[in-house]
Amino acid sequence: MQSASDRHEYPAHWEADVVLRDGGTARIRPITVDDAERLVSFYEQVSDESKYYRFFAPYPRLSAKDVHRFTHHDFVDRVGLAATVGGEFIATVRYDRIGADGTAASAPADEAEVAFLVQDAHQGRGVASALLEHIAAVARERGIRRFAAEVLPANTKMIKVFTDAGYTQKRSFEDGVVHLEFGLEPTERSLAVQRAREQRAEARSVRRLLVPGSVAVIGTGRTPGGVGRSVLGNLREAGFTGDLYAVNKAFPEDLKELDGVPAHRSVREIDGHVDLAVVAVPADHVPEAVAECGEHGVQGLVVLAAGYAESGPDGLQRQRELVRHARAYGMRIIGPNAFGVINTSPRVRLNASLAPQMPRPGRIGLFAQSGAIGVALLSRLHRRGGGVTGITGVSTFVSSGNRADVSGNDVLQYWYDDPDTDVALMYLESIGNPRKFTRLARRTAAAKPLVVVQGAGSAPQGHAVRATRLPRATVSALLRQAGVIRVDTITELVDAGLLLARQPLPRGPRVAILGNSESLGLLTYDACLSEGLRPQPPMDLTTEASAEDFHAALAHALADETCDAVVVTAIPAIGEASPDDAELAQALRSAAAAGPAKPVLVVHVELGGLAEALSAATSTAPRARTATPATAAAGTTMTGATGPGSATAASATPTGTPPAPAAVSGEPAVSGEPAEHSEAPEGAHLIPAYPAAERAVRALAEAVKYAQWRREAAEPGKVPEHEDIDERGAAALIGRLLASGQGLTLGADETCELLGRYGVPVRRATPAPTPDEAARAAGALGYPVALKATAPHLRHRADLGGVRLDLADEEQLRRAYAELTELFGAPQQLRPVVQAMAPRGVDTVVRAVIDPAAGAVLSFGLAGAASQLLGDMAHRLVPVTDRDATSLVRSIRTAPLLFGWRGSTPVDTPALEELLLRVSRLVDDHPEVVAVTLEPVVVAPHGLSVLGASVRLAPPPARDDLGPRTLPVY
Asked: Are strands 944-946 and 929-939 parallel, antiparallel or unpaired?
């Protein structure tokens, strides 16, 4: 169908799927000679007004000459792109290269005239904006730097497309026509516009899946049981507020209803509109179902069927065809091999999943690629609510399965401005686009907490993941830099999520500890120290403490300006004067409500009754008949404080909600029947309770670090301007060097020259293949000198004896030379060099790499065992700001060695931070610099010395984050 052009082969890499403003999808591709009939059909559906705006005159139909001109392109000087839905054109754009006189031209002319035509039915969907991004990227690829466009003044929509794009432009008015000129190089504003549009479009595409007005379950069985029938039952029992349809081509023709739901043999038979289709048929029958849905105008699909990429190469190809097929109709897919989606909002009440019970409504968004993990998380969140209101429940849940289309990035876009979600929890088995995920995570974390567990190191079958060379620890560090709360287990995920959903953020690391158990208080104190918090000595209220004692102690701690959070420890009541569960619950709740906004956590030991009493204190919880000690050990919650920043209470779960899900991972569920609900107090905070001090403190420590990140993110650092940097000279040097090959490691002279242009001087090392040459080099440098072996197995290994320092004269130099050759072999094997001595200090290492998945990363650590053996390195994404550089130096565990540890002289860390900023600028300005290593960098009390350096150049990897918006192809 797609033919070669006049001068160039068909550019398949220009094809892309995009999400439009309303959340639908379209395919953008080059127009070819085979598109003549489509073009004519498209033009016939465009209104006379739109045709007039395009051609400045009445133009009812295209002539044969027009059709030939608009379908024959050389893909260099003449390019046409079309946006298609269902294989038919909905919009077109073309450019023609022009010279200075405005007539047709070829390269090196770098200007082109651009024009659009959008079918009236699709105007307002953002089609022209998406086409502009793509035609601009094509033009840049073909050496075009500017677009010109002539628009009638009445065509305000098209003028707005150009002016809102964010490019630098000129505008003039002559002969009744608006003439626009704009450069095509991305600007800060154009990128901001593009990303804002991306967020709105992708969020709306997910909203179409999570907030449907109607749902059809395709593959609903005629008899109870089976996947389709189960999903239909779950939707009914959840109380879905929209229209439901059961679809199965095997239904008898006279079957009109199934379980009270309208039954149809095909989606085509449904009279009403269908927003979401849950596809529960075997993989072999999915293509037919997708075609029916596309032709009926279904907006999105949840594909539960397995047998795709997780099953091998054939399944992967089947999965790719599924995505192409669905996107061609403007539909997005969750799955295949998905568990389903849930939205607990009372306006929707959607349970289009295999979860038999609807979770409690709440403020936590939950995303899991794995269905099994999704079930476990839903169950834990249900139980950890302890029977309390929806405040601690789930807002939305997405299990993406193979995430062939909709991914965690899309769901983050939705949660970012979702008013029903305060905290986002994600279990990720893989990250398909780390660069984009980091960008979205940073923006989301600035507004609401994002807690992530990353699964096993290797991606499961069915997950297409971009290759990364970064170690897992480095990826975790980069996520933390973006504000992600990175935890290791789903238990920690729930622990941190419930605290962040229920309590205000701590203002600092100072922790007050109080309770009726001295031992439990000391355990909590030790846990705080281990997590880097600053605990106060525990206040022991003794085992005879009354409810009034707990109230007074908590009120005093909350009023204390020297503490930022309070951990209450409690063991079972002993003695007649000890409070019962209800009294203690009321005491803690009232004290927390009256105090300032500080987080309060409870560490309890087998106090199931206390947790229930605390929940019941607000009269918002279903009252369970029984609660076992094991239930309490699983971790429950308490209701409590009011204060600023509290979550808005979600609607209570309706009477008749099914019992809690079955226990998972050895944590029993709360038993009992649903009971009456009353509305939660406005602005109420729930106090989370934990069965172990370590779990409570770990969650608190994550909240402290996140709060610190939020404060720092509110005042981001700056990338300093260095006037002595020679960016153009460095670019010219890189260009000359790369002209000789695709990739190369620079020699010593080229390395010193390139780094020198960025203000990074390297102490030169002179080769010394003989003792005489070593002596001559030392004489030129001036004593004292160092003699080093640079063979690969001895480089940077002073512990092996391959380095001799402080050689004061020629005699010492010759003696050291003889010792090295005697120990390690001939000079040809040692590769000895002579170098001038640098001031003594702390040896460090600075590295920068361009990772194809994550982008440019700057790393820092101490040289030697600290970084090589212990992995004590800190990492930041490039470009690094002044604030990033400061934190980078202080992030390693061995940082005290830089700041005067045990009486040593502090070294010049400002000089070190300056070096980090300059290396960051180098790799950011020149993506051809794919690797830099400075080792060792000796940081002295005054200044520093770079004693070794290596630089590798290569053609830069493609950066899709700077190109036009596209949906990924997995």
From this structure: antiparallel
* Residue 483: both structure tokens together: 């504000």
Model pLDDT for residues 879-912, shown as the tens digit of each residue: 999 999 999 999 999 999 999 988 889 999 999 9
Average pLDDT, the chain: 85
Q: What gap in Å lies between CA 477 and CA 459, rounded to an integer?
A: 19
Which residues does residue 938 pair with via DSSP β-bridges, in sequence order? 843, 945
Return the ∠ at Cα 765 (arms to 763 and 771), rounded to 5°. 145
* Main-chain phi, psi angles of 324, to 5 degrees: -60, -40
Tokens 């295999």 belong to which residue?
A: 354
Nearest to 741 by CA among 931, 923, 957, 954: 954
Residue among 879, 833, 836 at smallest CA distance from 857: 879
Cβ atoms of residues 363 and 422 within 8 Å: yes
pLDDT of residue 689: 85
Helix, strand, coil content of the chain in percent (nearest 5): 35, 25, 40
Report how far residue 88's alpha carbon sits from residue 95's, in angstroms, rounded to the nearest whole number: 21
Q: Which helix (H) or strand (E) holds 589?
A: helix 581-594
Candidate from 38-47, 384-393, 763-772 with smallest mean pLDDT = 384-393
pTM: 0.82
Residues 503, 522: Cα–Cα separation, whole Å: 24
HSE at residue 852, side-chain half, CA atoms within 13 A, is 10
Q: How far is CA 713 from the centre of its chain?
A: 16
Q: Do 626 and 342 meet the contact criterion of CB atoms below 8 Å apart?
A: no
pLDDT, tens only, 276-323: 999 999 999 999 999 999 999 999 999 999 999 888 899 999 999 999
Residues 6+ apart with CB under 8 A from 131: 28, 81, 83, 91, 92, 93, 116
